[in-house]
Amino acid sequence: MNTGSLRLKMRNNWDVLFWTTITVLIALATTGLIGWILLPLEVFAAAAPSMFLIALFLSSCMSLFACRQIMHLQLAHKTIKLLHATDALTGTTTRRRFFEAQAETQAAPAVVMMVDVDHFKSINDRFGHPVGDEVLVQIAGTLMENVRDRDWVVRMGWEEFLVFLPELDWRKAQELATDLCSDVARLRFEIDEHEIDVSISIGLAEHDAANTIDGAIQAADQAPLKAKADGRNRWRKALRNRLQDNTPELTGSSAVAGNIAG
Questions:
Q1: CATH topology of domain 93-259
Q2: Overall pTM surpassing 0.90 (yes/no)
């Protein structure tokens, strides 16, 4: 849990305690005032302890019930926020949440990485959507394991992911792209005695003051097409909407191409 979430949780707990105390004090004061007005002084003096105990009990029960309802509402609100921000299948950030966050923060230099799963339609058609879903889950997990806490892994489409890398230089971004291709290529899926090898094609683009986030995503989105044309299981870098072909790459084509026609 980050510091902001801890402060929010503590503030909510203090709010509940404060309003519970206020409710009990109001109930006690109201009970005392009504008894003092309606009852003779002698009767009020004799009955006051019992009246206050009853008022304390009833107000405490009401406060606990109200606190429980508030906690349920807070939990429902957190669940809704989580569903809004997190892709239900892969656990990555949703596209909508990512763009909301970008609109709320000041733009900083970053590397945009578009990751496309090779031959994904062929995997779905041959082995079914449950297998395709598991492939996406494993690839998403590989992406999230390799990035920093400050980075974003976003599900952009059915088999396409965005990896947003703030303030990361080109060399490290290229090394990361190479590592991701290698790690995904090592994943293995066995279905009915069939072994499925998977791979990804990656496009890289630069996001800075001269290139908007939309422009960088558009440029990076075109680069995997070049990577696929060159054999898949590799990355290509786009520079200001132009593909740069002389970048380092992984040698060899995707192993899945040998197992599945697509």
A1: Alpha-Beta Plaits (3.30.70)
A2: no
